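Have a close read of the entry that follows and walk me through the local backbone shapes. See right below:
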Amino acid sequence: MPFALQSWPSFAIAVVAAVVLAFAIGALSAAPIHLLAKRRGWTHDPAASLRRPFRILVLVVLLWIALSATLPIRDDEGRPFGIDHVALIVTIVTAAWLLSAVVASGFRQVLGRYPLDVVDNRVARRVHTQLNLLNRIAVVVIWVLALGSVLLTFPGVSAVGTSLLASAGLVSVVAGLAAQSTLANVFAGFQLAFSDAIRVDDVVIAEGQWGKIEEITLTYVVVHLWDDRRLVLPSTYFTTTPFENWTRRSSELLGAVEIDLDWRIDPDGMRERLDEVLEGTDLWDGRTKVLQLTDATNGYVRVRVLVTAKDAGTLFDLRCLVREQLVAWIHSRNPAAMPRTRLEQAEDPRVAPVTVDVEEQTTGPAADEQRAVTAPVPVVEERTPSGQIKHQGLFTGSEEAERRAELFTSSIPLPHADDDDDSRIASEEITVDHRGRGDG
């Protein structure tokens, strides 16, 4: 019995051969990609993400060839019944899948060169933000073209497309008005990605919430809050509403710790304890440490401590550590500085005054409290050889403070004594001149 090409046995053999050949081609093509990625030191192996769409595409093409050659069922023109059209649509879809996987793999390979797990990752965050957005746009374009190609395989779609193009002007106006808010978010997404206003992993304050930018899309931005909640905001929020970006230029930050204490606080002792705390932790980056009394009202003095850290999370922990250690130091070493409320009782002539002999209370809690209250206030002034009080503040007392002062403040020149004398003489001459004219 002669072998017939267009028969069911031939069809079964062709299908099995196509499947085996597709897997063999997929395995053989993955080997050189693995070798190339290993030699080049790529952070991402493209074969892992391209293996499945490539094998399916090869399998679809081989099955198309096998079915066209061996399927016994034929139409009037001698072609396999309905196979060509279906196979063409499946081929277009799988080709779009493979192309989008290739684009995504290329973007991941580029992003692998810019790691985010470094201290100063400002450039990496900008690259990740822009490339992630471009990746989404490229994938959308690929699938739109694939959908258009699939529709063009139907004979009646060409005529429909011509009529749609004729009314495209009116349709575009109506669609633009209907999707005004959506288009505004899309353009805002482009603006955010390429204006560098925010980037992935930026630390921001939005809607009063502290968090990190987790994802930027064309229409919305996801903020990962400090308590693991996600705040989803439209892209237009970041283009129309003021917000704080703590990592716009660098991740280093300066934070404050404020404590209200009694007037009998020992600032020098507190500064020494602050130095010990900062030197004993790796949370402090060594840039700035300042302790100042910034206010004295309502029976209290306000102690402000300024410290710096490499990023926002580290700064929060450092502020908590400094606050805990200083409170413990005040409680154990300087209890007289603990906050107190002082009351003065008005004298009533009908009540005899009560006299307390302080000298007799030499022991017990009352005596300890009395000694703490009557303890002398320590002298905190430290003078330089020129007689000036030595002081180190945020804007004065050190080279770094003076450089900071140049950025935020500037000196106003005062007139010299010679200038005052010249001005006074000129004023007297003008006055005499006026009097002479009046007499004349």
Q: What stands out?
A: The CA atoms of residues 4 and 404 lie 90 Å apart. The mean pLDDT is 75. The longest strand covers residues 300-309. The first helix runs from residue 8 to 40.
